[in-house]
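Let's practice the habit of predicting before peeking. Look at the sequence and jot down your guess about where helices and strands might fall. Then scroll down.
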Amino acid sequence: MAAPGKPFLMRVGIGLFGLGMLAVLAVFIMFAAGLENLPIWLSVAAGVITPLGLLLGLIALVIEARAKN
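Done guessing? Here is the structure:
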């Protein structure tokens, strides 16, 4: 069961941001290991999912702040 204090959009944003950060970490580790031809899906995930999760989290914060006023 989800925590009652966190809206659904915030939980989705946190999850996407976490997945994106794992993709960024994987890209850095693979690059440091000497791999040059990284999978394109991994690079896209690192570049798109991370900011998307951040954006959803910020939108959820704005919605929550406006609802309290």
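How did you do? The mean pLDDT is 90.
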